[in-house]
DUF2958 domain-containing protein (Lepagella muris), 111 residues
Amino acid sequence: MKLVTKALEKLFAKYPTYSQDGKMYDAVVIAKFFMPWSNFTWYVTEACKLANGDYEFFGYVDGLEGEFGYFTLSELQSLRGRYGLRVERDMYFDCGKTTLAKVLNKNKVAC
């Protein structure tokens, strides 16, 4: 499966690194990748194409614990599961049209 399509490349250009800085759970999710053999999911909120053609992403990783962080396309592509399974892109995810809060079912707390 191709993880980065032409359509995603255009969307990534609209959300470069630091473009959603400080938004936390209000950040727009521009891509979703997952491991079909585990519960790990990567929600991309920012992307930057590197000089070597790789992509550096920033987003939320939902795995053993949830955390914000940086990861690269090549890191995702290097992961292998049993029987050669690889990380996949959620083809049915509505990229760029929802926030991280909605995806993770996080409710804002009224102060």
